[in-house]
Give the backbone structure.
Amino acid sequence: MKYKGAKIFIESLKAENVEHIFGYPGGSVLEIYDELYDSDIKHYLVRHEQAAAHAADGYARSSGKVGVCLATSGPGATNLVTGIATAYMDSIPMVAFTGQVGTPFIGKDAFQEADMTGITLPITKHNYLVKDVEDLARTIKEAFYIARSGRPGPVLVDIPKDVTLLQADYNPEPEPNIQSYKPTYKGNPKQIKDAIALIQSSKKPVILAGGGVIASGASTELLEFAEMIQSPVAVTLMGLGSFPDTHTLSLKMPGMHGTAYANYSIYESDLILAIGMRFDDRITGKLSEFGKHAKIIHIDIDPAEIGKCVPVNVPIVGDIKSVLHDLISKIKEEALDLTENKKDWLSHVSGLKISYPLAYEYSADVIKPQFVVQEINKLIDDTAIITTEVGENQMWAAQYIDYTKPRTFASSGGLGTMGYGFPAAIGAQVANPGKLVIDIAGDGSIQMNIQELSTAAYYNLPVKIIILNNQHLGMVRQWQQLFYKERYSFTNLEGMQPDFVKLADAYGILGLYCDKPSEVRKTLEKAFSHNGPVIVDFRTARGENVFPMVPAGGVLNKMILEESKKGTYL
Amino acid sequence: MRHVLSILVENRPGVLARVAGLFSRRGYNIDSLAVGPTTDTSISRMTIVVKGDDIILEQITKQLNKLIDVIKIIDLTAAQDFVERELVLIKVSSSSQSRSEILEIADIFRAKVVDVAAKSITLETTGSEGKIEALIDLFKKFGIIEIVRTGKIALNRGMK
């Protein structure tokens, strides 16, 4: 059957079971939009292309499916860049389609021309410029395959306008077989044996689980494995939800703003089992001091992650689910009891949890941001999806909500993209129509993609935007307070903000305001029960900091623990 | 330590940019890079000379392997048993007095004269790095006007 390129595009997306895409039309993608007009694929019109990329990302994180976004050439395409980089840093499967000027115009500085394969080279897993309509179907097939397989990541497909117009034979493409791309899924049996030997001899193990556990769908295996070897489990920001925060073995999040007990446990441990995580500097602090007393087992699907930051004793390259499954079967098969020599350690760790809980000082006069997050935690069940912006709001959302299920948390971990949370919440809501989706935001970040209120309103996506409004760029303010002699350079937003309630009203959605701790619960209940998008402007304590804090490049056991000990290192 | 990497890649537009870009953004330095087709026209071979310790080399190799267009990477230096060559064109300043001495040196080094002009001689030579460096050294006193080097190319010896 001969189709024109734009129709091949649609058919190829359908072949990948794409139901929803996020995009914004323009000159180079007119043919594609003409085909979308009466297609079964539901297209969500955003108000800025960056939001299309973040929405596709939030869609992917919350559903496990490949997120898809679409933009026109030039500025439309470059507006996707931040969203693509965000997905790249966090290994999120996404295919970004961009229109391109017609092939005869490429390289001529044509109107709305930008070299997208060049621009996105370092921030995509792979990218394509499709110069021949005959290659279009195969390219799209490969793009989806590469995005979702191995270590997932974003793939960009740049399609010149004439390619969407020209005709070619279309037949559904077979599963790609790319000779130079063969991810390793099965762990090496010898390494698995070595890992078990290390676990057996370890008296003080800690599991460090990351986003790889979620990408691999290995939460059940992780739980079984952790219980089997009786190891405490810390989860990175990207790993939140991969292991239940409410479990007795849980250490919650470690690192710069992690729990003190997680950081102390890691520091004191004699074995670190790193599972689908990449030793980010926000987790390790000073590398030369990280895990100084520990041997390290590193399980990851990406061989390049092994040994990238820390030397590893036992590397296992493979899919987390498959490797954990093999570890569990091997332990069962040999009827090993790996728990006996770990009892002292577990009671020590329990002691740390009691001695160093997450803490803040409650106030009856002014709303503490942590209190709002705690109240959210009390009101939601384990199906609710939390997205965050970046900064203090993100850290409090990580600290004070108990995540128990995978794919219930979406946050820009690696890139730290302000303005991520709201469009990501839109994407998550599209993927999960019946679920409660909450964007925990700051008053700074929310304004970076505030235009999407229009999208949420138009599609009646009942996303709840909870602004922890301290009228500051809080995290930067915190660093200025602690490390820049309280010189608050351009972080005070007092008097610079819109009235968020009026803004909500202008977009035709519900806006709520709350500045009394006693009314936080009631306000949240009202927001959550409202059938539609809501903005809640919580006026919170202006100088509240995120603690514990390991200063950048510091050692994990030397944290600034809380406000009252401000500036003192333990 | 210096490593000679022989990299087989898909012969596609942009593949050189992907490889070169990876080196710059991860902070690795390329000493030299040569690229050309293999017997299979869909595959090109890149010969890249890099400096770095074992840890850096391991990272470079792994990161290169992640590029979808990279098919295979061979660290020839690790294999040890390999031949390497580089082609150089050297334009040496010459006068009627110096011409015979230049030609004599060229002859000893089996360099070929490819162009003679009133005030210069252009020579072509191939060989190992040591030979080429020695030749360049000897020509310095006459004045080297221009020089161009292809960068190293290398292959495993024998049946590999």
Summary: The mean pLDDT of chain A is 96.
